[in-house]
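Here is one chain, start to finish.
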Amino acid sequence: MMNESEKVIEEELKKSKILPKELKDYLDEVSFINNLKAITFMFYFVVINYAYLMSSNKEFLDNLKYFSMLGAVITVFLFEYSYRKSNKVVCILALESLAATIITAYIPYIYLFGTVVARKLVMLLPLFYALYYVIKTTVMFIIKTKKYEMENISDVKELLNDNEYDGGYLDDEDSSKLIEKRKKEEAMIKEIKKKKKEEEKKKKENKTDEEVNIDD
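Its structure:
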């Protein structure tokens, strides 16, 4: 039979494998955004492939010029926005948009002067983008969940070390008090982190307002 301390530790180990609602919501949001980006890029290259199949060479070249110009404008806007807001997510999107714009610029030469293999690879670009975002989302999910589990397992190990006393365990009452104290400390840490995030957000907003005033 396990004593109360061992039961508490076992429960903590089980909880360490359950993702909190905040992390689940974050992963769902990132997955949705990545799926949306995948669909956008896939649609973009499907339209280009369709234009190649249904247009004359001259019309295709003219259409690709417009696509390249549109991609360049969107990329510049994304880089500018990510720089002003110090947003890493938008910066990554800007890099992905830049890659798509560069590929678009080379597509006319590949379709008109490239080998059969090169043309088939361009035809498969929508599939490559789908695979890229699936892999990206999967890797992100694994890293975030493993990181959370490791942090919680570390807390459980610390709890074990705190509970050990002269080769044995603390009594049930002391163990419960220790768990309660640790929960209060975690709540305080979360509150402090929340306040810091709010302060950083306010600083960024003030910085943005100052930049807008300078531009004006």
